[in-house]
Write a structure and sequence with these properties.
Strands 1-2-3 form a 3-stranded antiparallel sheet, with no helix packed on it. The protein has 6 helices and 3 strands, in the order H-H-H-E-E-H-E-H-H. It has one domain. It is mainly α and 194 residues long. Strand 1 and strand 2 form a beta hairpin. 22% of the residues are buried.
């Protein structure tokens, strides 16, 4: 469906549009995340073997880590937005919302509040001084050992990338089919009015 801001949309059509936006974003981001992980893994293996890899410096290994971390965070955020818009679309249709992906919510919450956690080399945990009740409300309390690894593998800890890709692709196909049907109905209505 062509998104023309001049044509009024119902709440359902708008929600369907954003489901498509975020489903496609998840697919693109999952591909980007896999690619940067692959590049990082190749460089790390070469670094560990002390291969004569042209131009491979400590700075590149560190840059790879930063890139992987940011791409994984973006993947988590995109997947969470897809889930939220699927729930909104279901609401607009009077249907029950799809079940929440708890690991995704925990990952998103932990990443969103990472700056509030106690930071150590390659990990984040509940800061000192939190009451047990406060600590239990923090997403990090649901992670193994109440610790979030900061070594660039946050998405691996909580998300299965193949499942995420498959689910997003199914959503894209379903929404695209619905939007195509809507466009055909609109065209048929336009032709009846002539």
């Amino acid at each position: 469906m062509f998104w023309d801001p001049e044509i009024p949309k119902s709440a359902e059509e708008t929600a369907a549009h954003f489901v498509q936006v975020w489903a496609e974003a998840v697919l693109r981001q999952a591909a980007r995340t896999r690619e940067v992980r692959k590049r990082s893994a190749i460089d790390e293996r070469a670094w560990e073997r002390q291969d004569d890899w042209p131009g491979l410096q400590t700075e590149q290994i560190e840059a790879n880590w930063r890139t992987v971390w940011a791409e994984e965070h973006t993947l988590v955020w995109s997947a969470y937005q897809l889930e939220r818009w699927q729930a909104r679309l279901a609401k607009e249709r009077g249907e029950p919302a799809p079940p929440e992906n708890k690991p995704l919510r925990l990952a998103r919450n932990a990443l969103e509040h990472l700056d509030e956690l106690h930071l150590e080399e390659f990990s984040a945990s509940i800061p000192e001084g939190k009451t047990p009740k406060q600590a239990k409300r923090m997403a990090i309390s649901s992670f193994p050992g109440e610790v979030l690894s900061l070594d660039g593998s946050v998405a691996d800890e909580v998300l299965d990338h193949e499942t995420l890709d498959r689910e997003a692709l199914n959503v894209v196909r379903t929404i695209q089919q619905e939007l195509d049907e809507w466009a055909q109905e609109q065209f048929a209505e336009l032709m009846r009015d002539r």
